[in-house]
Amino acid sequence: MNRRATVQELAPAPSLTDRAYAEIEEMIVTLRLAPGSAVSESELSGLLGIGRTPIREALQRLARERLVAIFPRRGIFVTDINVTSQLRLLEVRRELERLIAKSAARRATAEERERFRALAAAFESAAKANDDVTFMRIDRGFNILCSAAAHNEFAANAMSLMHSLSRRFWYLHYKRAADMPLTAKLHADIARAIAAGDEERAAKASDRLLNLIEKFTRSTVSP
Protein backbone atom coordinates (compact mmCIF):
# COMPACT_ATOMS: atom_id res chain seq x y z
CA MET A 1 0.00 0.00 0.00
CA ASN A 2 1.38 3.39 -0.98
CA ARG A 3 1.43 6.15 1.59
CA ARG A 4 3.24 9.44 2.03
CA ALA A 5 6.41 9.10 4.08
CA THR A 6 6.56 11.00 7.34
CA VAL A 7 9.21 13.60 8.09
CA GLN A 8 10.85 11.22 10.59
CA GLU A 9 11.05 8.38 8.06
CA LEU A 10 12.73 10.59 5.46
CA ALA A 11 15.25 12.15 7.84
CA PRO A 12 18.65 10.52 8.43
CA ALA A 13 19.32 8.86 11.81
CA PRO A 14 21.07 11.30 14.19
CA SER A 15 24.45 10.68 15.81
CA LEU A 16 24.81 10.81 19.59
CA THR A 17 26.28 14.32 19.28
CA ASP A 18 23.37 15.40 17.08
CA ARG A 19 20.92 13.92 19.59
CA ALA A 20 22.65 15.67 22.50
CA TYR A 21 22.66 18.94 20.61
CA ALA A 22 18.96 18.67 19.68
CA GLU A 23 17.87 17.89 23.24
CA ILE A 24 19.99 20.55 24.94
CA GLU A 25 19.07 23.12 22.31
CA GLU A 26 15.37 22.43 22.91
CA MET A 27 15.86 22.78 26.66
CA ILE A 28 17.47 26.20 26.13
CA VAL A 29 15.04 27.39 23.46
CA THR A 30 11.98 26.41 25.52
CA LEU A 31 13.54 28.03 28.63
CA ARG A 32 13.83 24.82 30.64
CA LEU A 33 17.41 25.99 30.93
CA ALA A 34 16.88 29.65 31.77
CA PRO A 35 19.04 32.52 30.50
CA GLY A 36 21.97 33.01 32.87
CA SER A 37 21.73 29.54 34.40
CA ALA A 38 24.78 27.30 34.81
CA VAL A 39 24.97 23.90 33.11
CA SER A 40 27.42 21.05 33.48
CA GLU A 41 28.52 18.20 31.27
CA SER A 42 28.03 15.62 34.01
CA GLU A 43 24.49 16.73 34.89
CA LEU A 44 23.41 16.82 31.25
CA SER A 45 25.03 13.44 30.63
CA GLY A 46 23.05 11.91 33.49
CA LEU A 47 19.81 13.64 32.52
CA LEU A 48 19.95 12.65 28.85
CA GLY A 49 21.64 9.27 29.20
CA ILE A 50 24.37 10.27 26.74
CA GLY A 51 28.12 10.09 27.31
CA ARG A 52 30.12 13.19 28.20
CA THR A 53 32.02 13.36 24.90
CA PRO A 54 28.86 13.91 22.77
CA ILE A 55 27.58 16.33 25.44
CA ARG A 56 30.85 18.30 25.27
CA GLU A 57 30.72 18.42 21.48
CA ALA A 58 27.09 19.57 21.58
CA LEU A 59 27.92 22.34 24.07
CA GLN A 60 30.78 23.52 21.87
CA ARG A 61 28.36 23.79 18.96
CA LEU A 62 25.86 25.65 21.15
CA ALA A 63 28.65 28.04 22.15
CA ARG A 64 29.32 28.80 18.48
CA GLU A 65 25.60 29.57 18.12
CA ARG A 66 25.74 31.85 21.20
CA LEU A 67 23.24 29.86 23.22
CA VAL A 68 25.84 29.05 25.85
CA ALA A 69 29.06 30.74 26.93
CA ILE A 70 32.01 28.62 28.07
CA PHE A 71 34.34 30.22 30.60
CA PRO A 72 37.50 28.27 31.52
CA ARG A 73 37.64 27.52 35.27
CA ARG A 74 34.27 29.25 35.78
CA GLY A 75 31.82 27.00 33.99
CA ILE A 76 29.21 26.96 31.24
CA PHE A 77 26.27 29.37 31.28
CA VAL A 78 23.16 29.84 29.15
CA THR A 79 23.42 33.22 27.45
CA ASP A 80 21.07 36.12 28.17
CA ILE A 81 18.43 37.39 25.72
CA ASN A 82 18.99 40.83 24.18
CA VAL A 83 16.27 42.55 22.12
CA THR A 84 18.65 44.96 20.39
CA SER A 85 20.88 42.11 19.28
CA GLN A 86 17.81 40.22 18.08
CA LEU A 87 16.83 43.09 15.77
CA ARG A 88 20.36 43.22 14.33
CA LEU A 89 20.20 39.47 13.80
CA LEU A 90 16.95 39.87 11.85
CA GLU A 91 18.59 42.31 9.43
CA VAL A 92 20.98 39.58 8.34
CA ARG A 93 18.51 36.75 8.67
CA ARG A 94 16.03 38.37 6.26
CA GLU A 95 18.55 38.43 3.42
CA LEU A 96 19.86 34.93 4.09
CA GLU A 97 16.38 33.42 4.49
CA ARG A 98 15.35 34.80 1.11
CA LEU A 99 18.52 33.47 -0.55
CA ILE A 100 18.12 30.05 1.04
CA ALA A 101 14.42 29.79 0.14
CA LYS A 102 15.13 30.63 -3.52
CA SER A 103 18.14 28.33 -3.68
CA ALA A 104 16.23 25.45 -2.10
CA ALA A 105 13.35 25.90 -4.55
CA ARG A 106 15.86 25.73 -7.40
CA ARG A 107 18.17 22.96 -6.16
CA ALA A 108 16.22 20.65 -3.84
CA THR A 109 16.23 16.97 -4.70
CA ALA A 110 13.05 14.97 -5.20
CA GLU A 111 13.44 13.48 -1.70
CA GLU A 112 13.95 16.91 -0.15
CA ARG A 113 10.83 18.24 -1.91
CA GLU A 114 8.83 15.36 -0.46
CA ARG A 115 10.13 16.24 3.00
CA PHE A 116 9.09 19.87 2.47
CA ARG A 117 5.56 18.71 1.62
CA ALA A 118 5.47 16.63 4.80
CA LEU A 119 6.72 19.58 6.85
CA ALA A 120 4.05 21.86 5.39
CA ALA A 121 1.36 19.45 6.54
CA ALA A 122 3.03 19.17 9.97
CA PHE A 123 3.11 22.96 10.36
CA GLU A 124 -0.59 23.18 9.57
CA SER A 125 -1.38 20.45 12.12
CA ALA A 126 0.59 22.34 14.78
CA ALA A 127 -1.27 25.53 13.85
CA LYS A 128 -4.66 23.86 14.26
CA ALA A 129 -3.66 22.42 17.63
CA ASN A 130 -1.92 25.66 18.70
CA ASP A 131 0.89 23.38 19.93
CA ASP A 132 3.95 25.51 20.64
CA VAL A 133 6.48 22.79 21.50
CA THR A 134 5.57 20.69 18.45
CA PHE A 135 5.83 23.81 16.31
CA MET A 136 9.33 24.48 17.66
CA ARG A 137 10.45 20.95 16.82
CA ILE A 138 9.01 21.12 13.32
CA ASP A 139 10.58 24.54 12.83
CA ARG A 140 14.02 23.21 13.75
CA GLY A 141 13.66 20.40 11.20
CA PHE A 142 12.45 22.89 8.60
CA ASN A 143 15.47 25.14 9.15
CA ILE A 144 17.88 22.22 8.83
CA LEU A 145 16.19 21.02 5.65
CA CYS A 146 16.16 24.49 4.08
CA SER A 147 19.88 24.88 4.66
CA ALA A 148 20.61 21.42 3.26
CA ALA A 149 18.33 21.82 0.22
CA ALA A 150 19.90 25.16 -0.72
CA HIS A 151 23.17 23.27 -1.35
CA ASN A 152 25.24 26.30 -0.34
CA GLU A 153 27.48 25.52 2.60
CA PHE A 154 28.37 29.17 3.23
CA ALA A 155 24.74 30.26 3.57
CA ALA A 156 23.98 27.18 5.67
CA ASN A 157 26.82 27.89 8.09
CA ALA A 158 25.72 31.51 8.50
CA MET A 159 22.09 30.53 9.14
CA SER A 160 23.02 27.90 11.73
CA LEU A 161 24.19 30.72 14.00
CA MET A 162 20.79 32.43 13.99
CA HIS A 163 17.89 30.03 14.15
CA SER A 164 18.19 28.82 17.72
CA LEU A 165 18.54 32.35 19.07
CA SER A 166 15.46 33.35 17.08
CA ARG A 167 13.39 30.41 18.32
CA ARG A 168 14.32 31.08 21.93
CA PHE A 169 13.33 34.75 21.63
CA TRP A 170 10.05 33.75 20.01
CA TYR A 171 9.29 31.19 22.72
CA LEU A 172 9.95 33.74 25.49
CA HIS A 173 7.49 36.30 24.11
CA TYR A 174 5.04 34.55 21.79
CA LYS A 175 2.20 34.09 24.33
CA ARG A 176 2.06 37.84 24.81
CA ALA A 177 2.89 39.18 21.37
CA ALA A 178 2.85 36.50 18.65
CA ASP A 179 0.29 34.57 16.61
CA MET A 180 1.61 31.01 16.60
CA PRO A 181 -0.97 29.58 14.13
CA LEU A 182 -0.21 32.36 11.63
CA THR A 183 3.53 31.86 12.09
CA ALA A 184 3.13 28.14 11.41
CA LYS A 185 1.01 28.84 8.32
CA LEU A 186 3.65 31.18 6.88
CA HIS A 187 6.28 28.49 7.39
CA ALA A 188 4.01 26.05 5.55
CA ASP A 189 3.73 28.52 2.65
CA ILE A 190 7.52 28.58 2.27
CA ALA A 191 7.73 24.79 2.45
CA ARG A 192 5.12 24.32 -0.27
CA ALA A 193 6.73 26.93 -2.54
CA ILE A 194 10.09 25.18 -2.23
CA ALA A 195 8.48 21.79 -2.87
CA ALA A 196 6.91 23.24 -6.02
CA GLY A 197 10.21 24.66 -7.23
CA ASP A 198 8.81 28.20 -7.37
CA GLU A 199 11.71 30.52 -6.50
CA GLU A 200 9.82 33.82 -6.55
CA ARG A 201 6.94 32.46 -4.52
CA ALA A 202 9.40 31.04 -1.99
CA ALA A 203 11.20 34.40 -1.71
CA LYS A 204 7.94 36.30 -1.20
CA ALA A 205 6.74 33.78 1.40
CA SER A 206 10.07 34.17 3.22
CA ASP A 207 9.68 37.96 3.26
CA ARG A 208 6.15 37.67 4.65
CA LEU A 209 7.42 35.49 7.47
CA LEU A 210 10.29 37.86 8.31
CA ASN A 211 7.91 40.84 8.23
CA LEU A 212 5.80 39.10 10.87
CA ILE A 213 8.84 38.15 12.95
CA GLU A 214 10.25 41.68 12.88
CA LYS A 215 6.87 43.16 13.82
CA PHE A 216 6.63 40.67 16.68
CA THR A 217 10.17 41.44 17.87
CA ARG A 218 9.57 45.19 17.91
CA SER A 219 6.27 44.70 19.74
CA THR A 220 8.11 43.15 22.70
CA VAL A 221 9.74 46.53 23.47
CA SER A 222 6.94 48.88 22.41
CA PRO A 223 4.87 50.67 25.08
Protein described:
The protein has 223 residues and is mainly alpha-helical. It has 2 domains: 14-78, Arc Repressor Mutant, subunit A (Orthogonal Bundle), CATH 1.10.10; 83-219, Four Helix Bundle (Hemerythrin (Met), subunit A). The protein has helices at 7-10, 16-29, 41-48, 52-64, 83-107, 110-129, 132-150, 153-160, 163-177, 180-196, 199-219; strands at residues 38-39, 68-71, 75-78. The N and C termini lie far apart (57 Å).
| CATH level 1 name of the largest domain | Mainly Alpha
Helix content: over 70%
- Terminal Cα span: 57 Å
Strand composition percent: under 5%
C-alpha-based Rg, rounded? 17 Å
Average pLDDT metric: 90
Per DSSP, the total helix count is: 11
Assign the CATH superfamily of the largest domain.
Answer: GntR ligand-binding domain-like
The name of the CATH topology of the largest domain is Four Helix Bundle (Hemerythrin (Met), subunit A)
Number of strands: 3
Major sheet attributes: 3 strands, antiparallel
Shape: globular
Which CATH architecture of the largest domain would you pick? Up-down Bundle
Low-confidence stretches: none
Backbone structural class: mainly alpha
Element order, helices and strands? HHEHHEEHHHHHHH
Number of domains: 2
Please list the strands of the largest sheet in the order they lie side by side: 1-3-2
